[in-house]
Amino acid sequence: MLRKALILVEGDRGNGPLCIQAAERLGLHPITLAVDPARYGYVAARSIEAIGVDTANIDALIRECYGLRRRYDIAGITGLANDEVLVSATVGKLCRHFGLPGPSPVSIEQCTDKFTQRQLLSEAGVSVPAYQMAVNRMEAESFASEIGMPVVVKPALGGGSARAKLCRNLEDLTAHTANLFGVKQTARTSQRVLVEDFIQAPQYNVNVFGNEIIGIAMVELCQSSSLICREWTYPAVLTDEEHEEISDVSLHCLHALGLGWGPTNIELRLTKHGPVVIGVRPHLPASPAPELVQLAYGVDLITEHIKLVTGAQRSLRRSPTETAAARFLISDRDGTFDWMDGDTRVSAVPGVSEIKWYIEPKTRIARKGDCRDCIGHVIAVSPSHAQTRIILQRAADSIDWSITPSHNFGE
Predict the structure, then answer these.
(1) What domains does the chain contain, in order, with CATH numbers?
(2) What is the mean pLDDT of residues 378-396?
């Protein structure tokens, strides 16, 4: 009998190790297919079987999977979205080809085109920010003037918030659009950017599995940048009416976009007129959201997702008992990351679940002004929101690190 394998297309520094661990607990042999498996440090560290392949080429992936089927019983195929790689639609096509459970490639593709996504949501009556799509700098400036500053400018294609920037004035806009339109594209695409109104209201992230809402997080943003997250807290503090509003619009999004298979994440802002949807992402939420959901609700999103893609029986029974929150550690300058200190002190704080660094000493840092500026996180859990916040602050006060500024290198 052939050994059952789980194919992971590409990887992710946060969810990647969690998927590997969950697969092994379920008796599956994880295999990573990636353009450059070496970029995912956990693959080598855990001696995970990995194959280098062009993951943007569906035919190449099909050939590799046929080759693997000579040695393994492929139980399921899934992908790991990260800030730079988007594979969900490709994974859907692979699953269809091999007759395995998977998402609809058409729904995924129209969802990861942010302009198409907003069109579909608007047509379905879902409130979204005022938006326009620009194909050059002049169009972006014209649309920004029409919408009114400040605006958010981001690539139209993609499923995350990387390279999204809040532009408060024309100078910000000119610099960011020059950067975006300077990004090299593949032969199959040309750069398009979305220019949209900046909605100034509290932000919430909604985690959905299938058609069931699992958790709602309250998001605190950095004061220096209204797009970089400082904290995530589960569950969000909401009135019954607010919870119902958010739940209703989230399920409406699924219907409008043809989603409802597996995990979906919805980012929205709650205005006095109701929820305004900022984005819908048809994949597992980025770490540490799965860890927080498990701590707060008792649902292991990673394991349940792997069960789904392999056709195993799932259990999404929630047992909300705790408040779990993550504080992100964010670089405040460009330079070289010299050292970090406080891990032992933080780990000794009652209620701290995890402290994790995303980078190692001697790493060069070049801030991007978005989620990629996070260099680590600390997680706290307790029976109440107030207590969890106190624990998080105590932990954050115990952490220190040093970055040698870039100008010391003559830059």
Answers:
(1) 3-109 (3.40.50.20), 130-197 (3.30.1490.20), 203-407 (3.30.470.20)
(2) 96
